[in-house]
Amino acid sequence: MVEIRRPKQSAGERHTTRREQQGASQSKTTLLGRLRSWLMHNRQVAGESLQRLLMTPMASMMTWLVIGIALALPMGLYVALGNVEMLSRGWDGAAQISLFLRFEVTEAEGRQLTKKLALRADVQSAQYVSRREALEEFQSLSGFAEVLGNLDENPLPALVIVRPQDSDATADITEQLLQDLRKMPDVELAQLDLEWVQRLYAMMRLGRHMVMALASLLALGVLLVIGNTIRLAIENRRDEILVIKLVGGTDAFVRRPFLYTGMWFGLGGAITAWLIILLSLFWLSAPVAELAGLYDSQFALRGPGIVDTLGLWITGAILGLLGAGLAVNRHLDAIEPQ
Amino acid sequence: MIQFDNVSMRYDTGHEALKRVSLTINKNEMAFLTGHSGAGKSTLLKLIMLMERPTNGQVIVNGRNLKSIARREIAYHRRQVGVVFQNHQLLFDRSVFDNVALPLVIAGHQPREIGRRVRAALDKVGLLEKEKHNPITLSGGQQQRVGIARAVVNKPSILLADEPTGNLDPQLSTEIMQLFEQFNQVGVTVLLASHDLSLIARLQHRMLTLRDGQLIEAMR
């Protein structure tokens, strides 16, 4: 074996010449200039990756639709819950206390009591329902008219319906009022008809938890869909990645277009979900208005507000970035020039 | 500029591609690397590019021991070394201009600077009028020249070439070699691997010959 060595330059000499070379090329790329070109490169890559998606409209549309449906489910439920919440707001103010009077209390005494109750500060209104009225109402509403007709005696007690005064501390005041009413000698039973409202609220709490669980599960699904799509994109652009790595592209440079692609998938999916929800609401609005009309209500469906909409879009974009990031970290290192 | 000290390279398959190779290529030198196919020419170039790491010994490029370059610094090392491949590695989804501009875009140069340098490089290889073409429409020799323009556009101090004339006829090969000599004359260190002895024997440069992974001969 023959070793070939040329006489070495002195270290100092070599050093100086390198310095000079670097100095000349670096003076043209200042820090500010680098930042500016970095920003411009990002904008350019963002634009290019969007263009790439639009160049294969059918494939991109399919991915957007899949992500859109996955995001529309929890978001739609969230919007529905919001509507139920809005509908039920103010119902706890409409709580009423049914005051069943003792049988021995006469009608005159009952009406007297009703007047007295109506004057109380914590009572908004009080309405007397005589035993006969109670029976008539029960007959017409229950469908037991014939059975009741066979009875010798009216089994129903007279009733005072008390509406508590509306205020911020409704619950406390109502509770206090209920205690007072129960102590009255003429009163057999005082019942607060609020339980069903509380049950509704409990159900809505449950619903909100289910939305969260569903949203997490579907978010995971979106991550996997985007991750898989990006994996295919990486595979398709293998040659480009190799060349970029060969001519000195950093990992960040190689990653960037894929991260932007993931972001566009996520954002596009979120916008698709938003459109799906708007379409569904539009489709439901007529029957809902009809139903509300039957209840003499002005209620109309409300879509996602601007905050929720922006939240959905941002969540979609972040999910896209994360999904792409996962795929890129898993698959990009495997592509090294050989 | 490029220095190998007792460098051995054994692949995972057990194949020993380089055996205790020591050599020095000076600044501004142009040298040929020859040998039969499989003698270790490509491996030697890959070590300089940090596409592979040696099993033993050290490689020093531009005064820096490549051992000290961490994985995430490799990209910056490669920016100092231009490479030309036999299969030119051009991207057919973009124009000639964009292919040549790639190293500059990666290095973060500004568009005006990129345009100026890309045109200068294309002018040097005689393809200025082809900048808007897709490289797939060019002939083999033209594609190779685009590859050379891309390798020099970032003004690297070292230019490596692996069988750059492998697919070209003698006439085109001579033209390509002249291009490399021109770059060498303006101060670029050139190391060119080729097994086309008839071609390189005519050129007056040092020849490093590998046989079965060993450096056996040096000619002026």
User: What is the count of β-strands of chain B?
Assistant: 10
Q: Which structural class best describes the helix and strand composition of chain A?
A: alpha+beta
Query: Main β-sheet of chain B: number of strands, strand sense, barrel status?
Result: 6 strands, mixed
Which bin fits the share of residues in helices of chain B? 25-40%
The secondary-structure class of chain B comes to alpha/beta
CATH class of the largest domain in chain B: Alpha Beta
Q: Do you know the CATH architecture of the largest domain in chain B?
A: 3-Layer(aba) Sandwich
Major sheet details of chain A? 4 strands, antiparallel
Q: Residue-averaged pLDDT of chain B, rounded?
A: 89
Report the C-alpha radius of gyration of chain A, rounded: 36 Å
The total beta strand count of chain A reads 4
Strand content of chain A: 5-15%
Shape of chain B: globular
How helix-rich are the residues of chain A, as a percent range? Answer: over 70%
Task: Tell me the strand percentage band of chain B.
Answer: 25-35%
What is the number of helical segments of chain A per DSSP (H or I, 4+ residues)? 11
- N- to C-terminal separation of chain B? 19 Å
Helix-strand pattern of chain A: HHHEHEHHEHEHHHH
In a nutshell, what does this entry contain?
The complex is a heterodimer of chains A (338) and B (220). Chain A has helices at residues 11-26, 31-55, 57-88, 107-119, 131-142, 145-149, 170-183, 195-236, 238-246, 251-294, 306-331, and strands spanning 97-101, 123-129, 159-164, 187-192.
List the helices and strands and how they pair.
The complex is a heterodimer of chains A (338) and B (220).
Chain A: H1 11-26, H2 31-55, H3 57-88, E1 97-101, H4 107-119, E2 123-129, H5 131-142, H6 145-149, E3 159-164, H7 170-183, E4 187-192, H8 195-236, H9 238-246, H10 251-294, H11 306-331
Antiparallel strand pairs in A: 1-3, 1-4, 2-3
Helix pairs in contact in A: 2-10, 3-8, 3-10, 8-10, 8-11, 10-11
Chain B: E1 2-10, E2 16-25, E3 30-34, H1 41-49, E4 56-61, E5 64-65, H2 74-78, E6 81-84, H3 96-107, H4 111-124, H5 140-152, E7 158-162, H6 170-185, E8 189-193, H7 197-201, E9 206-211, E10 214-219
Parallel strand pairs in B: 3-8, 3-9, 6-7, 7-8
Antiparallel strand pairs in B: 1-2, 1-4, 4-5, 9-10
Helix pairs in contact in B: 3-4, 3-5, 4-5, 5-6
